[in-house]
Each structure stands twice: as structure tokens, then as C-alpha cells.
Amino acid sequence: MRAEGAIAVFSGPLLHTFDAVMEEAGRGGNRNVTQAYLSELSELIRGAFQLRFGVHRVRRAHHHRYDLRASNTWSNIMEGWFREMRLAIRSLMKRPGFAALAIVTLALGIGANTAIFSVIHGSLLAQLPFPEPDRLVWLSDGHAELAPTGLDQSIPNLTDLRDASRQLESAAFYTFGNVNLATEESPDRVQTLAVSSEWLSVLGIPPRIGRDLAPEDDVLGSPRVAILTDEIWRIHFGADPNIVGQSISIDSRPVQVVGIAPPEFRFPMNPQILVPLQHVGADLNRASRGFNGVGRLAEGAEVDALNAELRSIFDRLVVEYPDANQHWSTGAVPLRAMMAGQNTQSLFLGPPGLFRCGS
After folding, report:
1. Three-state secondary structure along 278-315?
2. Distance between CA 21 and CA 15 in Å, rounded?
3. How far is CA 94 from CA 45, 46, 51, 80, in A?
4. d(CA 327, CA 112)
5. Which residues pair with 178 in a beta bridge?
6. Which residue has the higher pLDDT, 115 or 40?
7. Using one digit for the tens of pLDDT, what is the confidence trace for 202-232?
8. Dist CA 234 CA 208 (whole Å)
9. How far does CA 241 lie from the centroid of its chain?
């Protein structure tokens, strides 16, 4: 039946039914009128689809009467849903190509949206998994000709800033690296985070197993030790607690595992192993910038006050060490802001990384 013929045949009965439904619904008040109108509208839309896909049945005769109160029950609602689902499935089965395309499109759309939301929630919306995360700040340098902030620092400058600051309760230093980890299966290239011994205590998360890095681990030439993240501990070592105290091979050299980081530990670039910087006693160039710091604000301190203090301290360092610090500056931002920026960058540009700048 052509659409014009269908309209001619069914328009009279449909209008008669619609008027009767509206009259009966009017006796129940405006709410029933609205419900009846929406119900009839959805029925007309379904009828249009039935005509479009070759279904020539009209489910409602002009003499049909509605029990509006019964239509509000769950049984009738569920029955309506099942009826519509059966009709939709029968219509799709008549066109398998269209059905396959629709299903694949929906699956890809739902999957992509779920993945994106998971990344955004974990990276941008969720709180940092550290105690009192609002007190954590990220320290970085700026340069007059390069960038106002976000650049690497040197350990001598970081040490002086930490020791002179009254707005910081504590601070730790770090840099990224890559090593070859030998396992029973095959060698694996993994990301490391070389940190000063205060790292986990500044973040406020002790190891779940074993001990934290100690000050003596920071001394140049000390025995090589490492803390494994929960992820690599499970993937490469089967979550065996007995790995603590044993040696593993990193870059073909034995390294003793002294602890396992808690599962909530996370940081940009997804480091898998924490190793000590061993910067104490090392001949470090103040102009050699390849490090950054994470600090914990003193109780009651604010980021603005910390930045004012850091600028004052760094001005003195510029005077004392002009060759290393001329045209440079330093500052702090909330650690959450830094991590959100790094993870936002990863959404568009791939794996996150920090700016690297040589002197």
C-alpha cells in the first residue's frame, strides 16, 4: 500500500480515535491529557515506521477504549517495551545489512565513549590518591626565552629552595629514565622514576610491603636498591611477596628489591620502578637541569605565598650563581594541575612527558 492510500484509509479512524482518547483523558485532568497525547504521538510515529518498512497492520481500531490508569502500571509498561522490541527486531531482521551496520556503529560509539570517559575520569576528575592532595605542589623552572614555567630544575637549586623555604613542610626530587628489566620470560624495557629518599613520605603513601627508601640509599655509591610498583610486581613477579629482599637484574646489574609501592601510587609516564637518585656526594652542576620537585605545603600555607617565597629565594640564587640562573625563574603549581595537564596532553598527543631543557 502506498503512503497516500494509507493516509486516505486510516486518517478518519485515527482522528476519531484520537478525539475519543483526548475526551476521555480530559476527565482525568491535564496530566492524563499529556500522557494520552504522548502515547498517541508515539503510536503515530510507530505507525509511520510500519508503513515505511512494509508493515500494514493498524493495532488500534477506532472503537478502541483506553484504561489510562492501567497504562501506568509496570506490567503494561514492560509489555509495551517487549512489544516494541519484538517489532524492532523483526524489522531489522528483514534488512540484515542495515542491522549489522547499526549494531557495529552503536558498539563502536558506546565503546569509544566508555573508554574516553574512563580516561577523563581517572586523569582529570578523580582525586589524587594521596593523603591531603591539596597540599601537594609541583616545582618547576621557567626561562625568559623558553617558557614561563614547566621546565626542568637542577638538584643544587632544588636543595637550596627546599632548605630555605618555610612554606614547604617537605620536598623530594625526581627524574625519569628507562632500564632493561630481565625476567624469566624475556627482557623488558620499563620506565623508572629516580627519586630522592623522601619521595613516598612526601606523597604520604608508605610501601605496602617492605621498607621505604632510606637517606643512606641516596648516597653516591650505595648498594643498588629499588621499589617495584604494584603493577609490575603483579605482571612480572606474580605478586610474590617473597620478591622483597631478593635481587633482580636491571641493565645487567643486580638490584635488591626493598619494597612494593601501594596500588594507589600513580604518576605521569606510568613509572614501573622507583630507584634512588644517589645524588648525595655527587659532583652536580647547578646549571645541569634535568630534574623536578614535588613538595608538601606546611599546615596552613598557600600556593601563592609559596610562590612569593620561592621567587625571593631564587632571586638570591641568581645573584650568587648568575652563570647558572640568569634569565631563569622558579615556581610551584598544585600537583593535581600538573598531572591533569600531563594526562590531558596524553589524550591528544600520546604518552605524556615533561619538557626537557638543557642549559
Report:
1. CCECCCCCCCCCCEEEEEEECCCCCHHHHHHHHHHHHH
2. 10
3. 20, 17, 14, 22
4. 45
5. 191
6. 115
7. 999 999 999 999 999 999 999 999 999 999 9
8. 13
9. 29
Radius of gyration of the CA atoms of the chain, in A? 33
What are the counts of helices (DSSP H) followed by strands (DSSP E) for the chain? Answer: 10, 11
Given a cut of 70, whether residue 33 has pLDDT beyond it is no
pTM beyond 0.70: the answer is: no
User: What's the pLDDT at 141?
Assistant: 97
DSSP helix/strand/coil, 321? coil
What is the C-alpha to C-alpha distance for residues 8 and 331, in angstroms, rounded to an integer? 77
Q: Is the pLDDT of residue 241 over 50?
A: yes
Q: Any idea which residue has 650568587 for its cell?
A: 320
Residue 359: per-residue pLDDT = 34
Distance between CA atoms of 220 and 188, rounded to whole angstroms? 26
Using an 8 Å Cβ cutoff, are 301 and 310 in contact?
no
| CA 266 vs CA 98, 194, 262: distances in Å | 44, 14, 9
Arithmetic mean of pLDDT, 97-117: 79
Residue 4 pLDDT class (50, 70, 90 cuts):
very low
Written as one letter, the residue type at 283 is: D
